[in-house]
Fold this sequence. Notes:
elongated; 0% strand
Amino acid sequence: DQALEAGEGGLHRVLSGLDLTFLGIGAVIGAGIFVLTGIAAATKAGPALTLSFVIAGMACLFAALVYAEFASTVPLSGSAYTYSYVTLGELPAWI
């Protein structure tokens, strides 16, 4: 609303680092963690469950670092489509 009142176009950076962190966690984790964790713990509980969480967390960390690198290299809106478009072209980005 403020951009429309001021007559400015485009997007403004209004999200904090904490907002973006929780948004990224929510996008990566999803609702499946609440269902699948209980099923895995009920049927195959053991110390490997904790280790699997650590390994999955590291994989998510690396994916987040890749997206951070993309965002700093290509500071445009559009996320994954824009990164694919810039690196591979229009057709692979659309697919």
